[in-house]
Amino acid sequence: ERQKRKEELERISEIAKQAVEEHAREKRHAAAAMKKEKAEMEEMMEMERQHEREENHLRTLEVQKIRVFAKDAVARVEVENKTRAAAMQQDQEERRKFREKEKEQEMRQKKELIKEIQAMVAQALAKSKVPKEFDPTTTSGVGLLEEMSLNEL
């Protein structure tokens, strides 16, 4: 019976060792599976980070392009504004010169008219100082219908 017990203990001991070994194997297997899963997760996270970096890089490039485009647009608008301002200034200068020429022409015409009037006044004054010859055969020239000369009366 001792022998049986000893055999039984050895067999139980062997079963326990096998159970411990099986348990250790399962733990190792589970640990390996966990390590593998961890490595896969890390790889996946690294891929996501890489994808995110690429997206950020693309956004950065897009923002840079937009900024360059905005600077170009601002420069274009400034050039257009300067060109428009120069054209407006030139137009205003041309109008001012045209008005000056018109004023000068008007002034010349007025001076010429004044000279003509002065000449007419001088001629009329000179005529008025010369005594008129009396002609009894002429009418007064007022424009009346029954106008008659002194001889006709």
General description of the model:
The chain has one helix at residues 2-129. The longest helix is centred in the middle third of the chain and has 128 residues, at 2-129. With 153 residues, it is mostly helical. It is built from one helix and no strands. It starts with a helix and ends in a 24-residue tail after the last helix.
Identify the notable features of this structure and list them briefly.
153 residues; mainly alpha
For the terminal residues, how far apart are their CA atoms? 198 Å
Number of helices: 1
Q: Characterize the overall form.
A: rod-shaped
Considering DSSP H and I runs of 4 or more, what fraction of the residues is helical?
over 70%
Q: What amount of the residues lies in strands?
A: under 5%
**Which structural class should the secondary elements be placed in?**
mainly alpha
Mean pLDDT: 91
Helix-strand pattern: H
Condensed summary:
It contains 1 helix and no strands.
Explain the layout of strands and helices:
Layout lengths: L1 H128 L24
